[in-house]
Amino acid sequence: MFGAAALPCLALQDQVSEGGELRVNATRGASATSSLSRRLDALLTALPHRRTLESACVIDLVSGDVVHDRHGDRSLVPASVMKVFVMAASLVQLGPEFAFDTVLALDGSDLVVIGGGDPGFGDERLCNARGESPTAGLQRWADLLLHREMLDVQGDLVIDESIFDDQWVHPSWEESDLDNWYAAPVGGLNINDNCVDITLIPSDNAGLTVSVQPPNNLAVIVNKCRAGDGKALLHHPHDSFEYRLSGRCNKRWSFGSVSFPDPGLLFADSLRTVLSRNGIHIGGNIVRRRVRQAPGLPNAAGSLPPRLTVLASHSTRLTDCLRRVGKNSQNFFAECVLKRMGYEWSRRRGSAPMIGSWTNGAGAVTEMLLSMGIDHAGFRMADGSGLSRDNQCTAKQLASVLAMMSRHRSAPVLLDSLSVAGVDGSLRKRLKDVPGRVVAKTGTMRGVRTLAGYVLGGGEPRYAFAILFNNYPGPSTPYRKIQDSFCRVLIDAGGRARQDR
After folding, report:
1. Using CA atoms, how far apart are residues 459 and 455, in angstroms rounded to an integer?
2. What is the C-alpha to C-alpha distance for residues 140 and 146, in angstroms, rounded to an integer?
3. DSSP, residue by residue, 65-110
4. What confidence tens digit (pLDDT) does each residue in 71-92 have?
């Protein structure tokens, strides 16, 4: 938790669109006799399990009034709707024009890669959208070195990950999650979502060959899998470079993405492997070293020293990252965005440590809440993805951030980054009877089902809402259905409001 006295407020005057700043009237609340509030309350008064905790809030974006509030100030575990705070704060703190850069440079005889915390380097979905392979960025660098006739690099391959701290895995993440793609480590230098993709391929001699992406010499594949009918299995301790394959397989089989424990080393070895395949030799070793200007240098902290010869830069736009965060609920992207916000926040304040971390990222998000005048009592940010059960927030905080962002200059970017019900993302199979009327972020984990976003009217956001359920036993399906019914009531109310005007 961050105290208000410790944080300078970030003025939003220049951030709000010409429509003017929305003033959320959270003190009036919802009228007990309101037909809308009664209809919503009816959905929440007889929940399937007595022990379930709920928090719900709806804000009318025309009047700014809170038109429904049921335990709206109750602090609960948000799961992946925690990403709403990250998405909003990144647009306020970094701006929609922001891009992550990964730099390739020469430092004397050394080839240097300076990480910017980019989560998109080698991301399969972003690369597919561009019609290229996940290793295309590395290949472009190889082509550049070939063009410059740099076939023999005498020095080391130096990697600088100092933009972020070296806590790659959050201490509150559950150990059973850590070998999965959705709990991949978070570094200042990243590739392929910091995962390896392992595929079994039947060969002509009735054996099985193994393909690993990105190409590297670090992942140790122990292949005990045999050709034949059955099921192929993969075992990977999260802190190990070893991947054990077993079982049987009679067709091409992909195990999908599995986390790799050392992000920077995976990037460096993948680069060295691609360079080697192109006939480019690196004489030295992979070395970790800070290249960026150190904190304490006036007006230069974090910048690149003038002695470097910059060869190339790979960029990923924040807007592309936010679509991965919002529509695909990609945890790794959310954590990189949060840590990069933390880096910029600490650098702007001139405070130590000048580094991207979960703590500094939470400071940047809390500053946004303060600048919006949102009561942050009960708000606790452990991570950016919502994977940690140490996160806490209220439905009113979520709805208030969404309401304020509806008048922000980046409102179209936020809307475009959320899932569209019945159309795409994590909402593509929900509310198909009213497609396109709800844009929101979902959240699900054991005992937690959450939803926060906008109900549209006339193509524009009409209501900002959040509905959180915690502490229920068994499957979450009944609570998903309640959330969908909640949205349908708001869709109906929005239609009636237009008719009344």
Report:
1. 9
2. 10
3. BEEEEESTT--B--GGGGHHHHHHHHHHHT-TT-EEEEEEEEETTE
4. 999 999 999 999 999 999 999 9
Q: What fold, for 99-318? A: D-tyrosyl-trna(Tyr) Deacylase; Chain: A; (3.50.80)
Q: What is the DSSP string of 148-187?
A: TT--EE-S-EEEE-TTB-S--S-TTS-GGGTTBGGG----
pLDDT one-digit tens code per residue, 428-459: 999 999 999 999 999 999 999 999 999 999 88
Token digits for 289? 């070293």
CA distance 366 to 85: 9
Pairing, β 309-317 against β 99-107: antiparallel
The fold for domain 4-96+319-500 equals Beta-lactamase (3.40.710)
Those residues with Cβ within 8 angstroms of residue 146's Cβ, 6 or more apart along the chain or in another chain:
278, 279, 280
Neighbours of 285 (CB within 10 A): 11
Which string of b and e fits 125-149 if b means at least 16 CB within 10 Å? ebbeeeeeebbebbeebbeebeeee
* Amino acid making up residue 297: L
Look up residue 195 and give its two tokens.
């995962």
Find the angle CA(100)-CA(105)-CA(111) to the nearest 5 degrees. Answer: 125
Binned at pLDDT 50, 70 and 90, residue 25 comes out as: low
8-state DSSP, 113: E
Alpha-carbon distance values, 350 to 312, 369, 370 (Å): 29, 21, 19
CB–CB of 349/8 below 8 Å? yes
CB 72 within 8 A of CB 373: no
Helix/strand/coil for 136: helix
Domain chopping of the chain, boundaries: 4-96+319-500, 99-318
Residue type, 52: T
